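User: Could you check the structure of this?
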Amino acid sequence: MAKASAYNVQTDKMALLEKHTVLVKRIAYHLMARLPASVLVDDLIQSGMIGLFEAANNFDHSKGASFETFAGIRIRGAMLDEIRRGDWTPRSVHKNSRMVSDAIKSLEAELGRDVTDIEVAEKLDISLNEYHHILNEVSSGKIIGIADLGVNEDVLIVDESRGGENPYQHIEKDFFKKALTQCITSLPERESLVLSLYYDEELNLREIGQVLDVSESRVSQIHSQAMHRLKARMQAWQVDV
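Assistant: Sure, the predicted structure tokens are below.
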């Protein structure tokens, strides 16, 4: 009887893996839209499959959560870990990213409102073209996502499979999600829309450009500035790295 039960569990896991292989590929190609040619999609898929395997091993259907949601977090996290382990981003890009976030934070504290591209460029004492170049460079040089706000992406979901998790962590996650939601809704309309289309609808930059009737490069700039604005506004949640 025990052998039959173990066999059934293993069969269920294999079924989950086979059914969600397409999810791994979808997430990999979605990330590839933001990465240079030096990153191979096959490497992302390989890392994603490891994430899917771990999700299948740790998933508890009795908790009522969706496996696809649970697996999606693990798959994307495994891919991002792989990318960051081989961080090929020049130090200048990291420096410029911090510089933009600091400039936005300083200006918004001073003016008490959303600041424009032109105002940030003036604060940095560079031309608007140079500022847009920095935004594109940062956007293509690294994955800018929720994890870059200084927290792990797992903070966005309550993982009921971790039975021994400190209950205060759930409270912290709730507060973080509320703070993040408020920040996103407070963004300029176009920036908020780009984040929604990219993270919720899973459109790539080219597709978002078609929706907004702007170039893919411009979408990249809008996305990058939106994330820097969020990073500046969510500094209380950031940890030193």
